[in-house]
């Protein structure tokens, strides 16, 4: 039996059929970059014929319109090194079809019976990129619009109040006169003018307060005051309202209530709002105000609980309750009056003081509103704190009805803390909160990733050693996602002593082989004021070093190479680089020890380090790394101040523009992703 | 009849407040800017000054500082009238030497309480409510 040898023509037809089935345009090139063949998708996408394409040099296609230096260099690099390139993003004006964004992948085929060949695959991502740009533009526009709206309202409210005050004042005078001159028949009408004016003024004042909060201009006037005394004052003011509907007010004060340090006017207003709300929605029932002092998370809180036996709220109503301009039911406004802003304001007031309001309710049985406020409200960076509240508020109103509003608060100035240790989490959270950052925490890598997607924080602090998914895996996952990869990540791990910790300061991370687009995208964040700027490339593999050097030089950087951490340290002594690109696995001194040493020198601490490593760290490698980091930690620890200064500098240097609270400081380019 | 100097640049506010004070048995004199407020306090020696804070020529804070720096006028009580609940304005008013403050729009019963308290403290006469039928 003789074995049938397939004919070469058959094999070629077979191969061509497969290639033609692929939906991405493909070009087969020889090593002189002359087109051997193309697939059907190529002809269709670029609207050219086989005659115009085959046997042409790639840079001669379309009368030279395919002469793209960057592409040519990349292809030539592959021929030299027998390697591949992945996901090179190219924006170019092509013949016939015009300007397109193409994602290019190329590899050199394994040598066989055929001549040496390159395959270049192209994916048209123009639509996707345009859509992403549109989204980014729209997000920015809506943020700007929201801020403008708040400023407008703040100014407008002021303008509205002046004439309104005249209406109120004169109607009051008329009322006084009507009493004095016994013209009681006018009294009722004048009273209506006055009441309507007062309602309008309350509305304007609430709007002004809300827009002040949203514009980040709400100030806190902190003072120490007697809680019991304040409650008495509120009670006496609220009494007529309580009695109007035949209700009784019962006040219970804990014996250890004592004093609190807060904005008294805002605490009072919050209590007043909740009590008048309770009174409004309760008929011939009981309203109870309980006040106590509680110890939670190691600090003291003042808790006010307002219970009523009123009409209660459905769960749908509760969801909308704290949003501006949405009373539980639109008809409520007509039936019960009120601005619809009271609860929204109450919550914002509590939030800017570091507390919150919650509600529990059963329809037809009543509601319980609980205010929790720190016994000592700290003077924080209010602009930052209010920005966080603003972001929350904006989201809450945009979400409309999604009960999970708080869960999905957006960035504002949100920092995500991922750490499995509750003590550390709490410590970092309190520390950053005190500095005015809005902090969210995650207790595992998985949760961290989920929250990162949801919150898009302006920075992430990431614990290295966690059970399950550890810090390195989380970092890899973060940097693999388009929407997350530009968020600066601070790797840190802590020793037993909670006052001492250690940050690795890995602010960036890229996988090998490094693709050009990704690297230049990262480097764009560390803009060079007067090019060429020095960049230090720490990498033991000469080939990888060479490839990266070419990319860097093309981007206008002045490259210094070091083959391990020790040499790299010597290089920094000589010249301080603007950025360090760091391989992790190197002989003599590896990336982690190097990073640790750099971070230990105050004058070097702020040099951004871009960690460049293999895509998948094996479990064993990670274990080795963690162990290594642990030994470093025990040698030296950084204080929390160091961590904070890193967060601050990161945010100043490279936060995406949306993250910066001060508009003047915004850099106006968005990352190209 | 106790004499009150009202320093206020807004015409309607001036008109309303002066008439309501007059209704309550006070003699009201008016100044429209901070500088004339200071000058008139010196020349007319009122029993109390109601001082708006945002005033032309010389603002209310500076006018108060000058009154409190002058031995002749130092003992005359000054009540600052500030815009709605601006805590920084309140702070600044007290720092400038104001004896009390109230927010605009004024609520007459509350303002009257403050005026009467300061007058009593200074040992001045306070018009009785029966006199004014209010």
What does this 3D model show about the protein?
The complex is a heterodimer of chains A (673) and B (134). Chain A is of the alpha/beta class and 673 residues long. In chain A, strands 2-1-5-4-3 form a 5-stranded antiparallel beta sheet, with helices on both faces. Chain A has a 5-stranded mixed beta sheet with strand order 7-9-10-12-11, with helices on one face. The C terminus of chain A is likely disordered. Chain B is α/β, with parallel strands linked by helices and 134 residues long. Chain B has a single domain, classed as 3-Layer(aba) Sandwich (Rossmann fold). Chain B is built from 6 helices and 5 strands. Chain B has a 5-stranded parallel beta sheet, sandwiched between helices. In chain B, helix 4 links the parallel strand 4 and strand 5. Chain B starts with a strand and ends with a helix. Chains A and B meet through helix 6 and helix 7 of A and helix 1 and helix 4 of B.
Please summarize the sheet with the most strands of chain B: 5 strands, parallel
CATH homologous superfamily title of chain B:
Response regulator
- Classify the fold: give the CATH topology of chain B: Rossmann fold
Order of strands in the sheet with the most strands of chain B? 2-1-3-4-5
CATH architecture of chain B: 3-Layer(aba) Sandwich
Arithmetic mean of pLDDT of chain A = 74
Radius of gyration of chain B, whole Å: 14 Å
Number of helices of chain A: 22
Overall morphology of chain A:
elongated
DSSP summary, beta strand count of chain A: 22
Helix content of chain A: 40-55%
The greatest interface between two protein chains, and residues involved on each side, is: A-B, 19 and 20 residues
Outline the low-pLDDT stretches of chain B.
Answer: none
Could you report the average pLDDT of chain B, rounded to the nearest whole number? 88
- Just give the CATH class of chain B: Alpha Beta
List the helices and strands and how they pair.
The complex is a heterodimer of chains A (673) and B (134).
Chain A: H1 8-21, E1 26-30, E2 35-38, H2 40-46, H3 50-53, H4 61-64, H5 69-81, E3 84-94, E4 98-108, E5 117-124, H6 126-180, H7 184-214, E6 222-226, H8 227-244, E7 248-253, E8 259-263, H9 264-280, E9 286-296, E10 299-308, H10 315-321, H11 330-336, H12 342-352, E11 356-362, E12 366-374, H13 382-399, E13 414-418, H14 422-434, E14 438-442, H15 445-455, E15 459-463, H16 471-480, E16 489-494, E17 501-503, E18 506-512, H17 516-525, E19 533-538, H18 542-554, E20 557-562, H19 565-574, E21 579-583, H20 591-600, E22 609-614, H21 619-635, H22 640-654
Parallel strand pairs in A: 7-9, 13-14, 13-15, 15-16, 18-22, 19-20, 19-21, 21-22
Antiparallel strand pairs in A: 1-2, 1-5, 3-4, 4-5, 6-8, 9-10, 10-12, 11-12, 16-17
Helix pairs in contact in A: 6-7, 7-12, 8-9, 9-12, 15-16, 19-20
Chain B: E1 3-7, H1 11-23, E2 27-31, H2 34-44, E3 48-52, H3 60-69, E4 78-82, H4 87-95, E5 100-103, H5 108-121, H6 129-132
Parallel strand pairs in B: 1-2, 1-3, 3-4, 4-5
């Amino acid at each position: 039996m003789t074995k049938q040898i397939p004919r070469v023509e058959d094999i070629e037809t077979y191969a061509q059929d497969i290639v033609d089935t692929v939906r991405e345009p493909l070009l087969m090139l020889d090593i002189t970059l002359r087109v051997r063949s193309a697939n059907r998708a190529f002809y269709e996408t670029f609207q050219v014929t086989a005659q115009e394409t085959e046997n042409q040099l790639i840079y001669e296609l379309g009368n030279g319109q395919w002469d793209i230096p960057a592409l040519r260099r990349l292809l030539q690099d592959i021929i030299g090194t027998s390697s591949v390139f992945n996901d090179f993003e190219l924006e170019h004006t092509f013949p016939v079809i015009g300007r397109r964004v193409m994602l290019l992948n190329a590899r050199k085929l394994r040598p066989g019976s055929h001549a040496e060949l390159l395959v270049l695959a192209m994916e048209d991502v123009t639509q996707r990129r345009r859509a992403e740009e549109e989204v980014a533009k729209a997000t920015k526009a809506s943020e700007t619009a929201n801020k403008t709206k708040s400023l407008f309202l703040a100014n407008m409210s002021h303008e509205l109040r002046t004439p309104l005050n005249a209406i109120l004042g004169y109607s009051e005078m008329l009322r006084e006169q009507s009493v004095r001159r016994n013209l009681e028949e006018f009294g009722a009408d004048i009273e209506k003018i006055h009441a309507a004016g007062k309602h309008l003024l309350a509305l304007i004042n609430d709007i002004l307060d809300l827009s002040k909060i949203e514009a980040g201009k709400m100030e806190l006037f902190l003072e120490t005051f007697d809680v019991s005394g304040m409650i008495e004052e509120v009670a006496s003011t609220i009494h007529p309202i309580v009695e109007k509907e035949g209700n009784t007010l019962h006040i219970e004060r804990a014996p250890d209530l004592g004093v609190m340090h807060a904005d008294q006017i805002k605490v009072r207003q919050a209590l007043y709002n909740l009590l008048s709300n309770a009174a409004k929605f309760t008929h011939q029932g009981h309203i109870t105000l309980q006040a106590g002092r509680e110890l939670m998370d190691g600090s003291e809180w003042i808790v006010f609980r307002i219970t009523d036996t009123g009409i209660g709220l459905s769960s749908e109503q509760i969801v909308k309750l704290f949003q501006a301009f949405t009373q539980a039911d639109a008809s409520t406004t007509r039936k019960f009056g009120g601005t619809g802003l009271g609860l929204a304001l109450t919550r914002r007031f509590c939030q800017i003081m570091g507390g919150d309001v919650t509600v529990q309710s059963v329809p037809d049985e009543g509601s319980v509103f609980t205010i929790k406020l720190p016994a000592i409200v700290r003077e924080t960076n209010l602009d930052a704190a209010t920005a966080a509240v603003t972001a929350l508020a904006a989201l809450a109103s945009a979400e409309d009805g999604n009960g999970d509003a708080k869960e999905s608060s957006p960035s504002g100035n949100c920092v995500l803390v991922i750490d499995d240790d509750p003590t550390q989490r709490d410590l970092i959270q309190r520390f950053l909160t005190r500095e005015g950052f809005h902090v969210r925490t995650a207790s595992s890598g998985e949760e961290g990733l989920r929250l990162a997607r949801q919150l898009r924080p302006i920075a992430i602090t990431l614990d290295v050693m966690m059970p399950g998914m550890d810090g390195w895996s989380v970092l890899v996952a973060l940097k693999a996602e388009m929407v997350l990869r530009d968020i600066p990540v601070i790797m840190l791990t802590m020793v037993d002593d909670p006052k001492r910790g250690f940050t690795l300061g890995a602010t960036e991370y890229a996988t090998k082989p490094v693709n050009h687009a990704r690297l230049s995208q990262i480097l764009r964040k560390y803009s060079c004021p007067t090019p060429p700027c020095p960049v230090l490339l720490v990498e033991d593999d000469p080939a990888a070093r060479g490839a990266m050097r070419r990319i860097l030089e093309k981007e206008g950087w002045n490259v210094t190479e070091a083959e391990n951490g020790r040499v790299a340290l010597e290089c920094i002594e000589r010249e301080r680089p603007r950025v360090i690109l760091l391989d992790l696995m190197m002989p003599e001194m590896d990336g982690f020890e190097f990073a640790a040493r750099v971070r230990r020198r105050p004058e070097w601490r702020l040099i951004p380090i871009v960690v460049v490593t293999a895509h998948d760290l094996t479990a064993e490698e990670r274990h080795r790394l963690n162990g290594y980091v642990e030994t470093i930690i025990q040698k030296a620890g950084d204080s929390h101040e160091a961590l904070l200064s890193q967060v601050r500098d990161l945010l100043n240097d490279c936060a995406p523009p949306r993250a910066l609270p001060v508009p003047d400081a915004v850099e106006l380019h968005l990352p190209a992703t | 009849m106790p004499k009150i100097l009202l320093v206020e640049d807004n015409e309607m506010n001036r008109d309303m407040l002066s008439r309501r004070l007059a209704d309550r048995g006070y003699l009201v004199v008016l100044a429209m800017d901070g500088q004339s407020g200071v000058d008139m306090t010196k020349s007319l020696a009122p029993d109390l000054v109601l001082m708006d804070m945002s005033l032309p020529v010389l603002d209310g804070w500076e006018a108060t500082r000058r009154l409190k720096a002058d031995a002749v006028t130092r003992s005359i009580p000054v009540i600052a009238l500030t815009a709605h609940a601006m805590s920084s304005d309140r702070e600044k008013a007290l720092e400038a030497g104001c004896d009390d403050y109230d927010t605009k729009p004024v609520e007459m019963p509350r303002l009257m309480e403050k005026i009467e308290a300061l007058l009593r403290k200074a040992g001045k006469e306070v018009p009785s409510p029966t006199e004014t039928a209010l």
